[in-house]
Amino acid sequence: MLQLVDFVFRNRFFLVFVLLEVLSVWLIVRNNSYWGATYFNTSNYYVAKTLTLSNSAKEYTKLGEINADLASENARLHAQLAALSQSKPTDAPAGYVPDSVFASRFTYTVAKVVDNETTKTNNVITIDKGTAHGIKPGMGVISATGVVGKVRFCSENYSVITSILHSQFMVSSRLIRSNEIGYAKWSGKDPNVIDLIDVSKYTKIFKGDSAVTSNQNSVFPPGIMVGKVESVTVHPDQTFYNIVLRLATDFRNLSYVYVVQNHQLGEQQQLKSRTEELK
């Protein structure tokens, strides 16, 4: 207390000066309409800037929660889109009415990427969902922008995914404009591009055309983006194009994925196995 009194006594002239300055400013603002309006406009501006910075800081701390909510919403929209596309397929002949169970056979589970490889020849991805969440080996995995891979191994709370950036992974893909079907297969070099093989050179291919998952696929719903045609070449002694696709998914910035469950996959595989046995 004595120190405070000593401080006030030693700085009494300066403190009186500051008090008089504050009083003068208050009297000017109080009794002059122009300076009063200027003061309130300026103070409101800085208060608004402070509140904006404060809200931005709060929103930044909640980005993880916001991203998780968006991922869940995307999963719901993916399910609705898949059901709609299967209930009213654009390439179906007149009179074709798909079974309602068939149309709604795909469901989606949101998962967060906890480990991701992009620089190896055979890359894998680890996610934070496993058998406890209904994940099983063989399920397809997509992102908000396109195909990611297929579940390979599962533990109770984690799963390892064979990435599309894997030399042994292929996905049946269809070019939208030409309606040609081929297989997307990674060459093991650039994680941003992938080859589309087995597309006949006797069909016109358009640069910039989109490649999506085809109907000849039991793991992924049809119409999921794989990539866009970046270059098309062909050698005279070959019967197939050399097509390079720019991948739709940016694997270097992969945060959330959607594990796709085909509820009729077991039935399809069982029939296929019986067919192979008869051959």
Automatic annotation (TrEMBL):
Alphabetized InterPro entries for the sequence: Cell/Rod_1, Cell/Rod_MreC_2, MreC, MreC_beta-barrel_core
GO cellular component: plasma membrane
GO BP annotation list: regulation of cell shape
Pfam families registered for this protein in UniProt: MreC (PF04085)
Annotated keywords: Cell shape, Membrane, Transmembrane, Transmembrane helix
UniProt key word ATP-binding: no
Domain Rod shape-determining protein MreC beta-barrel core: 113-261
Transmembrane segments: 12-29
NCBIfam families, sorted: PRK13922.9-3 (NF010532)
Listed PANTHER family: CELL SHAPE-DETERMINING PROTEIN MREC (PTHR34138:SF1)
Similarity field: Belongs to the MreC family.
Protein name: Cell shape-determining protein MreC
Taxonomic source organism: Dyadobacter psychrotolerans
Highest classification ranks of the organism: Bacteria, Pseudomonadati, Bacteroidota, Cytophagia, Cytophagales
